[in-house]
Amino acid sequence: MPQASERSRQSDSRGAKTALFDEFARLAQALANGRRLEIVDVLANGERTVERLAAETGLSVANASQHLQVLREVGLVRRRRDGTRIYYELRDAEVFDLWRNLRSVAAQHRAEVSQLADAYLGARDSLEPVTRVELLRRLKRGEDVVVVDVRPAEEFAAGHLPPAISIPLAELRRRLRELPRDKEVVAYCRGPYCAFAHKAVRMLQQAGFRARRLEDGLPEWKAAGLPVIAMAQRRS
Amino acid sequence: MPQASERSRQSDSRGAKTALFDEFARLAQALANGRRLEIVDVLANGERTVERLAAETGLSVANASQHLQVLREVGLVRRRRDGTRIYYELRDAEVFDLWRNLRSVAAQHRAEVSQLADAYLGARDSLEPVTRVELLRRLKRGEDVVVVDVRPAEEFAAGHLPPAISIPLAELRRRLRELPRDKEVVAYCRGPYCAFAHKAVRMLQQAGFRARRLEDGLPEWKAAGLPVIAMAQRRS
DNA sequence: CTAGTATTCAAGTAATCGATTAAAGACTTG
DNA sequence: CAAGTCTTTAATCGATTACTTGAATACTAG
């Protein structure tokens, strides 16, 4: 944006309008990077240190830190210090709404997105995912459903569905015996573009379980105003 | 984004995730420019030709066209041809939601935005704006309110509040006599970051009218599911 | 205070972006 | 089909972006 700074400096009416809309654009600019969006998607599940974010997104620590500065400058995330490490989190629920709105529009209007989603998440679900409403109804009726949170244990601790048990995807294979074969297993993770639950359901189905995926993840559940349980916070 | 294209080309799991989130980012990228956001804001009020958009945003026609291609490539706008000219419009209501969400987050978290908004729109309203709910209540009660749409006549024709009369800002000064002095005048335009209604209210107040601004514009009214009247379409 | 860990900053480089200008396309009208 | 209008494309150039590497900063523990 070559002239942007020049035009923004003006103070007449057009210049003021330009400057105002450039400011809105700066926010979009902060979201205009796939790695930053991955970071936002992870942070929607709870705060993280720079190092963990870097590990989860496959970025170098320095690079992750730089991305976090970009998000911080526009107010999308905030941080708190705990001893030598720094935890980042989304500024508030509206930031998550924005990310959800963005990906929703992208998914609706861009064929590329659903193709790439299939490529990443695996082919379409063999079974329809369970909707939030359906899950709630079945839980209330006392039907036989087991809800499994397959995210890392830390995220389960930061907040999870009330009836859920925690079996991180990495541990699922060796903890299959903890799951009942006479009930349906419903797995969830970080959201519709997180691969954990997809993988978990495939693994469970191959092992002979009746398993389905919750339509989306914990952040969406929380955003829908449904109850979430958090465990006692760990401070280093 | 130097490596983006390389990484996107991979087909392993990380590469697939990278490609997927890069695709989301492409949408944000399209919004990451102040001029394109101005275009979106105008288009929320109805379709426009390239030439008109260029005039309204102060861009050259070629430049406006290029921005429109960017928006079109990601599916934010679509176009229809009418003889020699081409009309662009927002793809659907969700695109407007996204823009609104973006500017809402920006306004909430960034002090710069409200400063720049004041600089562009003039100091804070001397009177609180009228909320949609309040206006509806007063209209239903038959209280004395006159609603004025101060946008260009074309936009009024494309859709307006049922009780509104059209007096484009440019004509307001010489059409003051059409407005009653014993009623309150409520002016609206394109939205909270459009200067028309602000200017109209200042002009009216200086001319001795009781005038206030509707809290935001027609697109938000429509998005709230409230009734909108459109006049017969003009085809070239 | 020193060593150690976590995070941020700074410099360098390849890729991308945005505006201008000029030329080419697309369609209508005579 | 030729002239005219509206729109798009191509080429160019300065500015910005993202990642890497290496060094600086901030804090804790001993």
Could you characterize the architecture of this molecule?
2 copies of one chain form a homodimer. The first copy, chain A, has 236 residues and is an alpha/beta fold. The first copy, chain A, folds into 2 domains: 4-96, Arc Repressor Mutant, subunit A (Orthogonal Bundle); 122-223, 3-Layer(aba) Sandwich (Oxidized Rhodanese, domain 1), CATH 3.40.250.10. In chain A, 51% of the residues lie in helices and 13% in strands. Chain A contains 12 helices and 7 strands. The first copy, chain A, has helices spanning 4-9, 13-31, 34-43, 50-57, 61-73, 93-109, 111-121, 132-140, 153-158, 169-172, 196-206, 218-223, and strands at 48-49, 77-82, 85-90, 145-149, 165-166, 184-188, 210-213. A 4-stranded parallel beta sheet of chain A has the order 5-4-6-7. In chain A, strand 2 and strand 3 form a beta hairpin. In chain A, helix 6 (93-109) packs across helix 7. The longest helix of chain A has 19 residues, at 13-31. The first copy, chain A, is globular. The N and C termini of chain A lie far apart (44 Å). At the A-B interface, helix 2, helix 3, helix 6 and helix 7 of A face helix 2, helix 3, helix 6 and helix 7 of B. The structure holds a DNA duplex (30 and 30 nucleotides).
Taken from the alpha-carbon principal axes, the silhouette of chain A is: globular
Percent helix of chain A, as a range, is: 40-55%
Query: Which series of helices and strands of chain A comes N to C?
Result: HHHEHHEEHHHEHEHEHEH
- Output the CATH topology of the largest domain in chain A: Oxidized Rhodanese, domain 1
Count of strand segments of chain A: 7
Please indicate the percent range of residues of chain A in DSSP E strands (runs of 2 or more): 5-15%
Task: Say what oligomer this is.
Answer: homodimer
Rounded Rg of chain A:
20 Å
Mean pLDDT of chain A: 90
Distance between the termini of chain A: 44 Å
Most extensive chain interface and residues per partner: A-B, 54 and 54 residues
